[in-house]
Amino acid sequence: MSSLIKFVKDDDGDSVYTFPCWIHSDIMDDNILTQRSLTDAKSTGDRDLEKLDAVNIIDFSDLSIGDPLCDLIPLHLDVFRGDIDLLREYLRSYQLPFLRGKSNNDIYKSVGNSKFSTASYRAMCYCMLHEDNVLAAIFGLWKDLRAATSWEEVEHLVWDGLNRYQQSSPTLSS
C-alpha cells in the first residue's frame, strides 16, 4: 500500500503523506493476490492452516485521489473482519503516517483541535459517506452495536485503535 501513497519528509525528517494522494478505493479480500507462504503451516488440532502471503493488490478500476485513510476502512472491515489485533499489527508493521496533520500545514491548521483531527472521527465520517453500505458491514460484524445510542459509541468501538496509533506516532509531537 505504501507504493500508492506519496511520502515526503517534513521539517523534522519524518515521513508523511501529502494530502490528497492516490487511493485504491476497493481494497477487499478478493483484490489481494496471495501465495502459499514459504514458512510452515500451523496446526489447530482439527486441521492444518496454510499461511498465505499477500503479494500484490489488483483491480485499480476504482483508483481515485483522496485520504489514504479511506483505504484502511475496507481493509479493517473486509480483510481483517474487524479484528483490532490485525489492524494494530498492520499499522505497526507498515508505519503508514495516517493523519500526520503536520504534513500539510494548511490542513493541519484548519482541523487543529476539532473532532476531524482524530482518526476515529474521520474514519466514521468516511464510513457514513461511503457509496457502499459500510455501516451494514459494521453492524454485521459487531451485532451488539445495534443497540448503540450514538454514532460516537460506534466510532469508538470500531475505530478507536486508530486514535491510539495516531497518538503513539512520533511525528505527532506538538
TrEMBL record:
Residues 20-98 form the Aminoglycoside phosphotransferase domain. Signal peptide: none annotated. It holds the Pfam family APH. This is Aminoglycoside phosphotransferase domain-containing protein. It comes from Aegilops tauschii subsp. strangulata.
